[in-house]
Amino acid sequence: MDASSALDLCRATLLTAVVIAAPMLLVGMAAGLAVGLIQALTQIQDQTVSFVPKLLAMAAVLVACLPWLMTRILDFTRIIFENTSVP
């Protein structure tokens, strides 16, 4: 493996990791923003209140996106094992 192939592999790995993590992170961020807004409007300043809605929202997105995520991971793994060109 030359330097160019290693660099392409690292780039593809990082891009795949970002794409896989993005749905859960974005939903967690949106849920945190919504709970923070509700806390500000109702003047409830408890740090533990935002944990459960974020956890539930992220779990729901994980369940909803799991087939797509597994397909993406399996395709990437197949490309790595076949040692073909990295997308």
From TrEMBL:
Membrane topology: Multi-pass membrane protein
Residue stretches spanning the membrane: 12-39, 51-70
Keyword Membrane found: yes
Main localization (coarse): membrane
UniProt GO BP: protein secretion
InterPro entries on file: Bac_export_3 (IPR002191)
Subcellular location: Cell membrane
The entry's keywords: Cell membrane, Cell projection, Cilium, Flagellum, Membrane, Transmembrane, Transmembrane helix
Gene Ontology CC annotations of this record: plasma membrane
Family: Belongs to the FliQ/MopD/SpaQ family.
Name assigned to this protein: Flagellar biosynthetic protein FliQ
Organism, as annotated: Rubripirellula amarantea
Gene giving rise to this polypeptide: fliQ
